Amino acid sequence: MEQVNLEKDLSAEKLPRTREGTLIENFEFEEDPENVLEQLSDDELAERVETILKERIQDGNKEAIFQLGQLYFEQENYDKAREQFQSAVDCGGRDYQAKYQLSVMLYDGLGGPQDCKKALEYMLDVANSKSILSKHLIHAAQYNVGRAYFQGYGVRQSDEEAERWWVLASDDGNPNASVKAQTALGFFYSRPDTLDLKKAFFFHSEACGNCSLESQGALGVMYQNGLGCKKNPDAACECLREAANRGNVYAMGNLVAYYYKLKLFTKTADLAARVAMLDDVEQIARETECLPGYVAKGLALGCFFYARCLHLGHGVKINKEQAKTYYSKSYGFDADTCAHLQNVTQHGEI
């Protein structure tokens, strides 16, 4: 499986919530006999919630401090969110959700200066807590501590400590643990420095079973190439198709390559054209929660094979000028992937 800059690409685990949805979606209003709330726009509803929370804070409701911070966080008003989370932590340090969110913001420099040492201190408080109030946060916090050790931010870099914390966070593939840690371990054991493909296959399999879109695509590539497992073209195709349908661009790119090798040129051109129309790596990574490096590789694959189809008239009319454009786009997304494909093309392997 191709390598990416895992140290750079890993992102924080989002705050685990006891209920799905945004704060506004779960907000408990007092009775609304005239159904006024249903007539409000999204912005007006947010203002109403903000006003209510400020009133509750004035009345001494400490929980409302975190809730107001979370409202601002979901609106990407990070300056105000950070201020509220800090206030909630300063009220006695028992608000573990606020401490968790403040740690993420300090680590990533959201809403103010980056302070990785303080961020790690707060996240360790959550990860090591025995309070029932933090129970739902423990595995996610363990993943984030592992991320800090892996990236060497706020602490000396240590693969061993990162691995230890991620193994704790993954909890042997427990679906209620950190699925993000399970996926991270799958990639961790695929690196040259920590290579253990059987472990990589195990953790990607567990994460895939727990609905990880990233691991589903990775698993398809592992089945396809016999990495940590026996080659299984049927399982590879199934994983890649399902991941592609769910929006995994790396899976889309590999599925394009799979169709091309089978000379299914109409399918190749159709899917490759869809991939080639995409261009914002960071936005796709945010929306799918997939690593930017693998998104870029998927785009490079899609653009290259679309260019190949245009160049040779496979599944589409020949258009050599347009083909040059997509060869160039492929190189721009991931030079190593494009160079590899050009090399195998010259040797007649595709």
UniProtKB/TrEMBL annotation:
Repeat in keyword set: yes
Pfam families membership: Sel1 (PF08238)
InterPro entries hit by this protein: LRP2-binding, Sel1-like, TPR-like_helical_dom_sf, TPR_rpt
Keyword Cytoplasm: yes
Chain positions of TPR repeats: 62-95
GO cellular component, as recorded: cytoplasm
Keywords: Cytoplasm, Repeat, TPR repeat
Compartments where found: Cytoplasm
Main function: May act as an adapter that regulates LRP2 function.
Protein name from the UniProt record: LRP2-binding protein
